[in-house]
Amino acid sequence: MPSLKDIRKRIVSVKNTQKITKAMKLVSAAKLRRAQDAMIELRPYAAKHRELLSSLVSQLTTDGATAPHPLLAQRETIKRVAVLAVSSDRGMCGGFNSGVQKLVAAYSESRLAEGVEEVQVFTVGRRINLFVQKAAAKGLFDHAHNFGEIIALAKEDDDLRAVSAQLIDGFLEGTFDEVVVIFNVFKNAIAQIPTVRPLLPVAADVDEAEAGGDDAASADLIYEPDQQSLLGYIVPRYVEVQVRQVVLESIAGEHAARMNAMNSATDNASEMIRSLTLQANRARQAAITTELTEIISGVEALN
Amino acid sequence: MANLKLEVVTPTGKVVEVETASVTAPGVRGELGIMPDHRPALIQLGGGAIKYDGGEVLVRGGVAEVRPDGLLVLADKAVLPGQLERGEAEALLKASLDGLESREYLNDVRIMDLNNDRAFAEAALRTAGH
Prior knowledge:
heterodimer, A: alpha/beta, Pyruvate Kinase, Chain: A, domain 1, elongated, B: alpha+beta, ATP Synthase, domain 1, 2 domains, 5-stranded mixed sheet, 5-stranded antiparallel sheet, globular
């Protein structure tokens, strides 16, 4: 049985931990709000790009013809696959990173089983980078490139652009035939779901109804210089927007996950303090009882 | 005469929203002047300055959606004059020129981006303070 002094010491230390987890929770809540704002800022730009892309593609695609842009072309045989894996830089966010790690491993395994020759993994975020380095050493897949820390990346516009540029280059040069992103989808503040999302070739989901209804309006549009060049500008931008969206979503998810983890850590600390206090009181009572017994038996002996 | 509404939107938010009598935009095949009641158009922009009454904004490339009552510019990067430091602009210009001159094989997307970078850096240098 630990002594009263030991128990009191533990109570103090748990209280200190609780202060830290509480503060981290508040910090994450503030950061989450900022990350969500950034996601909202991107929305009008992203939505407009999607609209322009599907309208241009529907106009340029004639039945049976090849894709109007090389980045849209589906390759017949997929030999090499690139994976962009996105995680956070720091831990203390529950299962946020391990979810992505497991999915990266499971995904590459299933692709290799399907007959894909090679899986190359690009990483964003320190956690996934460490994991992929280790896994690559075991020969599970190739660690192609690490883009560095996610927070630093999100701050620098041009760094983010470099990520999509490198993936586009690799795809156009045939270094890989398909690119997917594995990251945590920010569903809401409570749920972040590790997900595989195709990035290249670009899937221009042409909404038939929408495209058809727009025909009269788009026929009237002047295209400068022409539809083909406009598509040539829009497609890579669209890839960039998607990468940006993934990074922002992952950051928001990270803060949300950390907020939840810290919330339950604070709750657990409260529970622990409660049970330790109970123990301390019991120990104190026991000590008093022993002392009393000693005094009484001492008096008794004198008589 | 009715005014045009100019909006410049980037991935990080709206940069400019003004009412103006006319707009000059850096189209990929030269400058374009846009007046009110323009026919609806979709214009690819290169790097350079979008000029409007009382100001200008530098873009690295983008698409302008023109309607009779205004235009919406989707720029992948846009800054106000003087926002980009001279040194930064010089570095960007050098990097884009080096990239274009390198003997490395460049795909179309890279060439387009580098050209936009170059024009953007030049416009930034022109407007940057000393």
